[in-house]
Fold:
Amino acid sequence: MALKIVKGSIDRMFDKNLQDLVRGIRNHKEDEAKYISTCIDEIKQELKQDNIAVKANAVCKLTYLQMLGYDVSWAAFNIVEVMSSSKFTYKRIGYLAASQCFHESTDVIMLTTNQIRKDLSSPNQYDTGVALTGLSCFVTPDLARDLANDIMTLMSHTKPYIRKKAVLIMYKVFLKYPESLRPAFPRLKEKLEDPDPGVQSAAVNVICELARRNPKNYLSLAPLFFKLMTSSTNNWVLIKIIKLFGALTPLEPRLGKKLIEPLTNLIHSTSAMSLLYECVNTVIAGQYCCSLGSVVLCVQKLRILIEDSDQNLKYLGLLAMSKILKTHPKSVQSHKDLILQCLDDKDESIRLRALDLLYGMVSKKNLMEIVKKLMLHVDKAEGTTYRDELLTKIIDICCQSNYQYITNFEWYISILVELTRLEGTRHGHLIASQMLDVAIRVKAIRVFAVAQMATLLDNAHLLTGNMQRNGICEVLYAAAWICGEFSEHLENPMQTLEAMLRPKVATLPGHIQAVYVQNAAKLFATVLKSQEGNTDGTAAQETSQLMIERLPLFVQSANLEVQERASCILQLVKYIQKLQQKDVEVAEEVSALFAGELNPVAPKAQKKVPVPEGLDLDAWINEPPSESESEDEQPKAIFTKEEHKHSRPRHTEVDEKELAKRREARKQEQANNPFYIKASPSSQKVYQESTGVEHIPVVQIDLSVPLKVPGLPMSDQYVKLEEERRQKQRVEKKKKEKKKRKEKHSGRGKKRDSGPESEEDITPAHMVDIVTEEMPENALPIHTPITVCDIQGNLQDGSQVVVSVIFENKCDGFLKSMEFNVLDSLNAKLQRPEGSGPHDGLTVPFQLPPGVSNEARFVFTVQSIVMPQKLKGTLTFIVKDSSTHEKLDFKLHFTCTSYLITTPCYSDAFAKLLESGDLKCSSVRLEGVSMPFHHLLARICFHHHFSVVERIDSCSSMYSRSIQGHHVCLLVKTTVSIDAKCDEPTLLGNVLDEIKQTFSQC
Amino acid sequence: MRIRQGKLRLQKWYVPLSDKEKKKITRELVQTVLARKPKMCSFLEWRDLKVVYKRYASLYFCCAIEEQDNELITLEIIHRYVELLDKYFGSVCELDIIFNFEKAYFILDEFLLGGEAQETSKKNVLKAIEQADLLQEVRRRIRTKNENNGVNNDFTITKPTLLAVRPRSRFMTFLIFLLLQIRLR
Structure:
């Protein structure tokens, strides 16, 4: 036995150890691979020996080779052997090799479980330590499951050295085996208050990392961490805690207020830049921004960082600055000088950061100055990457927010032209698209743009000089198009035409040639026109001759597009020439080919085109592909479940979510479509912000003005529809009135001539009818019928209702001293001027000559709006000459509908509302209604103050809001059933009853 | 002609990746870092990670960290590791790391665990290492030291070497060193 050991040691003397291997590799630079393959052979031999020392040496060498990139996975089992050696020296090497070479798919890992468990419970803390370290690198879900308990025990080990490692590795275990988190958590929490600072910091690390993944489970620890944060002086721990709070604050906004003080203290006091940077970052990222002071402090500190000579601090300062820029552009803008300085920095990555910042700093005033500075940099810049970056930034800066900051487009065009002089840029197409965009959209600039483009075309050889790097020749595309399209502005079209037909053009890329050919034809038309106008035919004929001579070059082009266009135009010109030879004037006809001006289209233009009757834009043209159907979320039942039973095939049943999605997609598409002018930023903002109900733009409805609700086009359309209908209806009412005098009527101030009969007869102005009491037999022959034309809630005050009353004098006498009085109920009271008693009447502020009507408004205070109610009232007046008081009784009917206010609602907000689950639902069926669906909708809109949120062919969702803020949502289906939801069931019930009544009357 | 290419001296990965991926990442990263000019700042954005590197003589130490991690503290970690190496080997040079690469790993493992700093006190790290070393065979250590001394003069270190520490993926939130690379001519 002893002999064997001695023999083993002697063997080892002859083996290569690691140092020999390294040296060998360095001495065999020329044939490294060959040398290593012999080494590997040797190692294989060594691994076959029984001696563990030899094996360990071999494994050590293998670890080195692994790092050099050689495959050693074949030795995995030998590594396990060395790991299980009882000697620490070898064990250490074994674990090191394992941690470097093993990964999850290494199958021998499962053999190690028991060995690792043994090592973990070893009395020697370094055995345990080495096992933990190794495990941290190659832990698999299986290992994590089997060893979780052992490691958990180690968290309470007597030695802090082990506790610390065990705590840290628990995080790895949690990741691989999440079930272990629950049992281990209490112990982990205990470790936050461990006497050893290393263990404590390890526990902070682990919890911080866990919290970053799933913050809401760790909110309860906030007070503990807050204590740690204010007491700890260890920067490593502080950074982690601040990170943790950064993850928690979005969930608990109150934390932000509490943290702002310690954070600002730290910012003021700390000398550690890493901690300062962490604090600043957290303040920026968190919603602490409520306090402007802290932002200003951060910006100040960042300024110090940026001014520092250390490149690293400069870089990070700029990086953090760009984050502030997003939320507080103003506070960053004051440091423009500093950021412009950074553009001169020798470090490219710092310059790029500064460029990012510039984007947000421009204003109308400083745009030119900044761009001028950037242009200088473009000239100086070495390396195309940075220069290209500059170029895109210049364009980005200029065209941001729809050219918001550009005051002078001539200047911008010249900048673009200057940029074309950049050699070898990749961004030719970007410049080109800007040129096109500006020339098309800014009419006033066209003369200037055309002149510039003509020069470009003339000097095209300068741009295309080097065909290898011809990215820039894309601008010729734009130049040719602009010159052609706006050729009437050209000073010397003939010269430009010639420039466009030079033989050199044939070397340009096909798509540019195609544009050349097409626009040469446009130019030709312009030239003809001018030449025919002032001279004899020869000049014009010469022009045609020029075309005929030059075009064949393009007819031979390999590019089909060029070929096709060229041959077409060539034939055309030949024909024109024939006509010219017969002295026929052709210019008019030729230019007719290109007549008509291109105009930009506003994004909303499509909405102005009425949708033809019977066309449903949301219906599928083809059945949707089946895969996408399975991918789509099943639409949520927003009303009752019964909806699904009734609903038709899948494609017609589109809910709000889906529609919102589609609208979003459409918007996206429009944004990418160059033919849409992007909406101005302000209107976009409105769209984005209108996510919650509280953001719904509310429009006060003024009765003297026709209803007009800005907002959704859909609802707009309906409002218009109603408007028309209302007018028609008024006309009809007027007619009826003539027949039935003394009866109630409806009417508004405006008189209208009789219009076309409306096909659907909408009953008089909705909810309120005044019932004039039966007249006594001997009463005055003709009375003053009064009509309440509208009862409208007051939006500003949830308890106010305005009643507009129209008084019409139908008798022959002059009416004066009219007094309007209502018997107050508990719930509703007439608002009387101060100082008057509760039963006093209100004087109507006008007198009525015979046959005249006028309108007065009265304000009522209402407590509860969930129930309809009737108020009794009297009108007293004096008929002139008779000087007796006359009295007229009436009833005022406050329906629940009158408490609703037409409020537009965006479908996303609507969907949110329905999802919120606060609403009670109810439904109603309308019997015997046989009107077109859109009439039905219009009626509900009109009579019951709803607005259409979304209309799909078979159903429509509608929304309204009560003066006290109840939301009322309807889903009306073509089956004439209405599902409704409201946060106030009584109100809803009454509204539905009223709707039902409306439709039963017709 | 010598190829201007970094050689790996140490690497440590704190995320499980296949060898192929590791190689690819290493190659890309070495190229990117070596392409940086000396006066440039120590941070760069690379894929969805941030790379923090620092050059000490001929060695580059580099670390890939995640988006939310703190660059400056990472720089501090690198520096601290270099200090540890320095204390342990006694003014460390590249050859110390080459010939005792396992020691360099042991120190790293005492300093960081699972990508997270486990011991911020230099003294404690060194104490742990020394005590663990005591358990090793004495003979082996002496032999190593002697041979090192003999070899040192054979090589002059002229070219920068890269020692890089590599990223954690989004699966591993524990910070910092994923791979250590060193380079020599």
Observations:
- Helices of chain B lie at 19-34, 71-89, 94-99, 101-111, 122-134, 138-151.
- Chain B has a mean pLDDT of 68.
